[in-house]
Amino acid sequence: MSMRSHYCGLVTEDLIGHTVTLCGWVNRRRDHGGVIFVDLRDREGYVQVVCDPDRPEMFAIAEDLRNEFCIQVKGLVRARPEGTTNDNLKSGKIEVLCHELTVLNPSVTPPFQLDDENLSETTRLTHRVLDLRRPYMQNNLMLRYRVTMEVRKFLDEHGFIDIETPMLTKSTPEGARDYLVPSRVHDGHFFALPQSPQLFKQLLMVAGYDRYYQITKCFRDEDLRADRQPEFTQIDIETSFLGEQEIRDLFQRMITHVFRQTMNVDLGEFPVMPYAEAMFKYGSDKPDLRVKLEFTELTDVMKDVDFKVFSGPATTPGGRVVALRVPGGSEISRSEIDAYTEFVKIYGAKGLAWIKVNDVAAGRDGLQSPIVKNLHDAAITAILERTGARSGDILFFGADKAKVVNDAIGALRLKIGHGELAKKTGLFEDRWAPLWVVDFPMFEFDEDDHRWNAVHHPFTAPKDGHEDDMDSDPGKCVAKAYDMVLNGWELGGGSVRIHRAEVQSKVFDALKISPEDAQLKFGFLLDALQYGAPPHGGLAFGLDRLVTLMTKAESIRDVIAFPKTQRAQDLLTQAPSPVDEKQLRELHIRLRNPAAV
Amino acid sequence: MSMRSHYCGLVTEDLIGHTVTLCGWVNRRRDHGGVIFVDLRDREGYVQVVCDPDRPEMFAIAEDLRNEFCIQVKGLVRARPEGTTNDNLKSGKIEVLCHELTVLNPSVTPPFQLDDENLSETTRLTHRVLDLRRPYMQNNLMLRYRVTMEVRKFLDEHGFIDIETPMLTKSTPEGARDYLVPSRVHDGHFFALPQSPQLFKQLLMVAGYDRYYQITKCFRDEDLRADRQPEFTQIDIETSFLGEQEIRDLFQRMITHVFRQTMNVDLGEFPVMPYAEAMFKYGSDKPDLRVKLEFTELTDVMKDVDFKVFSGPATTPGGRVVALRVPGGSEISRSEIDAYTEFVKIYGAKGLAWIKVNDVAAGRDGLQSPIVKNLHDAAITAILERTGARSGDILFFGADKAKVVNDAIGALRLKIGHGELAKKTGLFEDRWAPLWVVDFPMFEFDEDDHRWNAVHHPFTAPKDGHEDDMDSDPGKCVAKAYDMVLNGWELGGGSVRIHRAEVQSKVFDALKISPEDAQLKFGFLLDALQYGAPPHGGLAFGLDRLVTLMTKAESIRDVIAFPKTQRAQDLLTQAPSPVDEKQLRELHIRLRNPAAV
C-alpha cells in the first residue's frame, strides 16, 4: 500500500464520486469565501483541493499550510462548479473535497517563488533542489528520460546490446584535454576519464559483439562554452557488417522513432548533403536549413576588380568571395549594418561590404552601396544575376581566407535568419530541419604545425577508391564519415571505421604518426585489427544537445539535473573542493601552490 | 542491406531450401573426404558450412581459411545427412552449402585456442579482445544486458525514471577512499568520483521526481578483493511515498521478474529474517540458506565449566559460545579437522574445539573429543539436547568475542556447507535461496574510536518508536534498513531515509557529528530537508554481483567486458600510465616521487 492512490496530476473526471488519497506539495493556497483552496502539485501535474470549514480538525491544519509543505490529502473527487473548470490541466474538470489532511513535512519559506521566471542561473544552481521542482525542469528531465527509453527500445529491437566500457582508462595526449585520476596503487601513474568509448567500442566489434550501444558519460576538460559541460552524455553506438548507407538509414529511423514516440513529431525525410556542398552554400558543416538564405559564389568574377578587398582573396589560393542575399533586406538600417559589421569581426572578418538593391531594373544606378563604384560592370552583372537579386533586397559580402568567409558569413546567415526580419518575411521556416552531412574530408592541413590532421579521428575509413589518395594527395581523400544535423546543431556523427591493419597503417603514415608512436598509443587496437576484425562503423549522439533541442530549453544546463557552471563548478555541493593532505599523500601527489587553497 | 541475411547461430531447419548470406568467424576448419567443413561462429552461435570442390574458385579460398578469419558465406541451407545432426546447436539440423566465399579480413594465428579452458587470468585480460570472443564471455555479457533491460522495463512500468547524477562530485572524507580528480580551473581543488549517488537521489526525491533509478558506475579506491572492482555498477533506486514493506515488495517483484524473464527461474517467496536472528542462527547478515547448518547457542551453559576456553567468553560481556552440528560429520578426518582449525584462524579464532558423536545413547562415553573431559554433565547434556545431535555427527565449537565466533564459525558453516560432504549428505540444497534481512541496528560501537558509527549510512531512518533510543541507548535502536540476500551474497540493500530535519539532527548527535561538521559535509542535504522533503527510501543492487551469481561465473571479472585486475590495472590498455609533465602542471599538482615512474 502506497501512501497515495493516484498522482495529483492524473485525477480526472473518470474518478468523480471516488475517494482518492494524494500526496504532493502545496503549490498555492487561496482562501476564498471561508473555504481554503490548495493547488496540490506532484510530478504529474496539479489538482485543486477544497478544504471546507465544516470539518474543523482538518480545516485547522489547512489554515497552517504554506507553500511547499509536503502533504497527504484524502478526499472525494467531484466535478468543479460550472464556470470554474481549467482546460489547461488534465485535472481541470474536477476538484478533491478534502476529508483528511496530514502534513508529511512542513517547509520553511523558499528563497524564491517557484514560478518566478527571472531567476539568475546562480540562484537556480545554488538552490537546485527547489529549481528542480519547477514544472519546466521536471518536464525537461521527464522528456530526457523518455528519449533514452525510446532509444533503448529501438536499439533492443534491432539487436543492439548495452555493454559498459571503463570509466578509469588510459590517458591519450591527443584530442581534448583529459580529466586525470591519480592511482594510489601505482605511484606516479594516472587513469584518465574517457573522452568517448571510441576504442573500446571498436574492440567490442572485433570481439564479435556485433551491435553495441551505451548511453554513457564522457569527459573533456576544455574551456566551457554555452553548450558544453565537463561531463556530458553520449548515445554511443557501433555495428558490424553494415555499410555507410545502412548505418545512416538505421539511425535516421532511430531519431525519427524518438521524435514520433516522445513528441508526436514527424521528421520526414532527411536530405543528404556532401560536406563540400554544405560549405559552398552555407559556409558550415551543420547548416540550419530552416533559414532560407544561401551563399552565392563570386570568387571567380572578383579576380580583376579594382577593389582589393575582393580581388585580393579572389586571387589568393585558399581565398573566397561570396555574397549573402537577404530578400527584403533593404529595410535593414545603417545602425543594424554597423552591428552586423561588429558581429562578423568576432569571426575574423575585417569588415562587411553590402549593397542595397533599390531598383534591380536600373542596374548599377539602382544600387546603394559604398563599394559599387569599385566594381566593374561584369562583376555587378554577375552579382545581380547569380544572387537573383530583386528590388528591396540587401546583399552582404565576405572576402577573405575561405575559413574566415565561411565562419563570418555563415554566422551572419544565422543571425539574420533567426532574427525578426526573417520571421516576418518567411526567410525562417519554423519546422524541424534534419539533415545528413556526408563525404567529409579525411584530413585537414594544419597551417601552424605544417601537417595533416584527421578531421574525424584516425580510425575513420576512406571512401572506396580513395585509399591511394592518402599517400599522394591527402587533401582530396574523402572519408566514410557522416554527421546528423538538426536545426543547425550537430546531433551526432560517426563513420565507417578502418577494419584492416594495412589501411590503418596508411592513415598513420599520412598523419606522420610513426609505427612506434602508433603502437604506444593505440597498440591494443592495432593488435586487435590483426585477428579478423569485421567491417564495422557507428556513431555517437550528444544526448544533452538532443534533449535541449527537443525541449527548446534555453541552456544545456536545463536538461541536466545537476550541471556544472561555465566555471566547471557544482554550486549545490561546492565541488571541486580542497581535500585532506592525507588523501594527496596516498595518491603520491602534492599541490604546486599550497597557498592557492 | 546488411552484409548478411541471418545470424549464423539462428539458421534453422525453417530455412531449408533458402539461400542465406552469413558473416562470422572461422571457429574450426575440418577437411573430410575432400570436402572442407567450416564451423562459422557469430554472437548467436555456430553453423556448419560445407565447401565442395566442385566450385573450384570458392574452394581455393576455403583451403586458405584459418581460425578466426572473418568471412562472408553465401549458400543454400540444407538438412544435414542423417546421423550427423547436432542437438546441442540451434542450427544442428542443417548445414549451409557454400556458393560464394569472401574473406572479409584474415587473422594471424591467435596466441591461444579460444576453447582452451586453462588460460591464466593475465593471458585472458591481456588479450581481452580474443577472450571476449569466447561463447562463455559472450553469454555472460548478453545475459548482463538482458538483466539491465528487464530491470529498465520493470521500473519503467512502475513509473521510475532514469535521471543521471554527476560523476564529477564532491569528496567526502567518510566511508571508503575516494578517487580524486584534480581541477584545472580551480587551483588546489579536486572533484571526487561518486561512491554512490546516495545524496543526489535523495535530493531528487526532495525535488519531487517521485521515483528515480539509474544503472550507474560507482567508484571506491579500496584494496581489491575477489568480488570487488575499483569501478562497479549499481542499480540505484529511490522512491517517495512508500514504506519499508512496500519498497521491499516492489523490489522483490523486480528481481523475481528479472530471473523469470532472463533465466526462466522462479525464485518463489523470499523469507524475511531479522538481523538478530540471522546473526543468532548463522553468524552472518547474509546467510546462505542453501546450507542446512545452524548455530546452537551455548553461552549460558558454559559460564561455569572448568574449560577456560569456553567459560572465559561465556562470562565476558560481548562473548559468545556456539556449536555447529554437522550431521554425518563424524567421518571427517583428523587432518580435515586440522585444516578447518587453520581456516577459522583466518577469522581470528584461536582454535577449533570439536566433538564427534559416535553413540549419542551412551552419553559422555559415546563422545570422542579432546575437550569433553573439561565439561560437566549439565553442559554435555545441554550440548547434545540443544544441537539435537545424533550418532555419526560432529559438533564444532566457537568461543570468543561474538564477532570472532560469528565470523569464524559462520565461515566454517559455509566451507563445510559448500563442500563434498554436504552435497553427498543433502546438507547443501542446490537451489536459488533468496532472503530479506531486515531490522538492522542503526548504530554499531567502534571499540577503537569509542564512538557509535552508522551501520548503513547516517541518512537511514529509525524504526517507528525507536527515535528516542538514539539518545538514551543507541545500541538498541533498530533501523528501517534491509538487505536482499541470494545464496549467501548480498545482492542489494537500502533503507527508508530520514525525511525530517530534526530526526536527521538527532542521528548526527548520536554519531557525535557536530552541527557545523554536518553542515560542512551534508549541508546541501540538510538544507533540502527543510523544504517539505517527502517520506522516501530506496535501495541499490550490485549489478556485477547479481550477474556473477546468475551466470555462475567464476569471477566478477567474467561479467565485465574490460575489468581491472586485483592490482587495479587494465592489462589491455596498460592503464594507469605515466602522463606528461605538462598535464600535471595544468592541474597544479606534482609527483611526490618523480623517480617512481
Description:
Two copies of one chain form a homodimer. Chain A is α+β, with helices and mostly antiparallel strands. In chain A, 29% of the residues lie in helices and 24% in strands. An eight-stranded mixed beta sheet of chain A has the order 6-9-10-22-21-20-17-11, with helices on both faces. Chain A has a five-stranded mixed barrel with strand order 1-2-3-5-4. Chain A is globular and about 90 Å long. Chains A and B meet through strand 1, helix 3, helix 4, strand 6 and strand 7 of A and strand 1, helix 3, helix 4, strand 6 and strand 7 of B.
Q: Could you give the topology of this structure?
A:
The structure is a homodimer of 597-residue chains.
Chain A: E1 19-32, E2 35-42, E3 45-51, H1 56-64, E4 70-79, E5 94-105, H2 121-126, H3 128-131, H4 135-157, E6 161-162, E7 180-182, E8 190-192, H5 198-206, E9 211-219, E10 231-240, H6 244-263, E11 272-274, H7 275-282, E12 295-297, H8 308-315, E13 319-326, H9 334-345, E14 353-357, E15 367-368, H10 377-387, E16 393-401, H11 402-417, H12 420-425, E17 434-438, E18 443-446, E19 451-454, H13 469-472, E20 481-486, E21 489-496, H14 501-510, H15 515-529, E22 536-542, H16 543-551, H17 581-586, E23 589-591
Parallel strand pairs in A: 3-5, 6-9, 11-17
Antiparallel strand pairs in A: 1-2, 1-4, 2-3, 4-5, 7-8, 9-10, 10-22, 12-13, 13-16, 14-15, 14-16, 17-20, 18-19, 20-21, 21-22
GO cellular component, one term (chains A, B): cytoplasm
GO molecular function (chains A, B): aspartate-tRNA ligase activity; aspartate-tRNA(Asn) ligase activity; ATP binding; nucleic acid binding
Family (chains A, B): Belongs to the class-II aminoacyl-tRNA synthetase family. Type 1 subfamily.
